[in-house]
């Protein structure tokens, strides 16, 4: 009895071969549709890959801007030159407008620090509150909350 079942299984057509034959018949009968579908798939793949390349470029650009701003703040910390402070403020404003997510809130934290240096406590408090409420990053939220507590104590 088991031998008979084995022979039946062996003589049954293979599922993979049936699927392959069906696909070949479909492609042969609908060649034009298949070519159009393949072209559409290539266009979609090119668009998606272009988006990711562009997004990666934008992220690197924003990170470079943040780096320049942080360097300018470091220069201000060493020399107390208003030139460095103005440069940093310009860079962080531009980054806060253009970027989204974490880089945006990092820029806002630095802008709030610049506002504190210039004596604009209300403006700084608003920026810290914005970061505290909207940032999904815990570290940025904690930094903003600590700054808010420090402002409220004074």
Describe the protein's architecture and organization:
This protein is mainly α. It has a single domain, classed as Serine Threonine Protein Phosphatase 5, Tetratricopeptide repeat. The protein is built from seven helices and no strands. Helix 6 (121-134) packs antiparallel against helix 7. The longest helix has 49 residues, at 31-79. The N and C termini lie far apart (93 Å). The model has no long low-confidence stretch (mean pLDDT 90).
Notable characteristics:
single chain; 154 residues; Serine Threonine Protein Phosphatase 5, Tetratricopeptide repeat; 89% helix; elongated
The CATH architecture can be given as Alpha Horseshoe
Element-by-element helix/strand order: HHHHHHH
Which consecutive residue ranges, at least 5 long each, have pLDDT under 50? none
Q: What does the oligomeric state look like here?
A: single chain
The total of beta strands comes to: 0
Q: What's the rounded overall pLDDT mean?
A: 90
Would you spell out the secondary-structure blueprint of this structure?
Elements: H1 2-11, H2 15-29, H3 31-79, H4 82-98, H5 102-117, H6 121-134, H7 138-153
Helix pairs in contact: 3-4, 3-5, 4-5, 5-6, 6-7
Short description:
By secondary structure, the chain is mostly helical.
């Amino acid at each position: 009895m088991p031998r008979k079942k084995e022979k039946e299984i062996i003589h049954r057509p293979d599922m993979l071969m049936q699927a392959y034959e069906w696909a070949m018949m479909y492609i042969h009968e609908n060649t034009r549709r298949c070519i159009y579908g393949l072209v559409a798939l290539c266009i979609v793949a090119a668009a998606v890959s272009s988006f990711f390349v562009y997004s990666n470029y934008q992220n690197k650009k924003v990170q470079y801007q943040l780096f320049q701003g942080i360097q300018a703040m470091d220069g201000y910390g060493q020399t107390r030159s208003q030139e460095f402070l103005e440069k940093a403020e310009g860079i962080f404003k531009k980054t806060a407008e253009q970027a989204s997510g974490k880089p945006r809130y990092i820029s806002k934290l630095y802008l709030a620090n610049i506002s504190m240096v210039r004596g604009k406590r209300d403006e700084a408090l608003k920026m810290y509150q914005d970061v505290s409420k909207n940032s999904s990053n815990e570290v940025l939220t904690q930094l903003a909350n600590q700054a808010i507590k420090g402002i409220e104590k004074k």
